[in-house]
Design a protein that fits this description.
Blueprint: H1 4-16, E1 31-35, E2 40-44, E3 49-58, E4 61-72, E5 77-85, H2 88-96, H3 101-116, E6 119-128, E7 131-139, E8 145-153, E9 156-164, H4 173-180, E10 182-183
Antiparallel strand pairs: 1-2, 2-10, 3-4, 4-5, 5-9, 6-7, 7-8, 8-9
Length: 185
Amino acid sequence: MLCLSRKLIAACLLVAGMAGVGFAQTAVEAKPYVSQDGHYHVLFPGEPQVATEAKTVGPGVQVDMHMASLEKNDGKLAYMAMYSELPADVLKAQTDQGMTDDDRLANCAAGFINGVAGRVITTRPIRLPGVVGKEIEFDRTDGTKGVYRVYVGGRRIYQLFVGWNGAVPPAGEVSDFLDSFALDR
């Protein structure tokens, strides 16, 4: 059986392709994670695992997915921050066709929901300097719940999410993680 974070990572890989009973938990001291190449930082509730995976996202189009992820409670609670860059020629072709960052953002959000086969509970626009963003709270029929954020600016796509199934995140931990994300430009 795949753990929760692997399911959600797979969904995020599709996105970038443009594309319960709780139990008591104790709060963990936040660990700063800095992505030098990704030019961002975020506070994880523990030490994340870091990986890069090349993914084919279209005919002849391959991107590297740079991920930092953390599983807790035997995979029932997962945190992830990820960035990828569209190839320059793909961005140019999209821009020449009139596609904007807002269009790419909409494609990412739709791709995520389709990829996780989720139901949108709430959605709201969010912003960081130089990028447009969207936050989606979702659930699935298997009991998985989560919050997904995506930011798009030019070639760069940033994605964050927290997902849980059978575990209740400690009070404030989800918002602490999501709200700590910042760009280092």
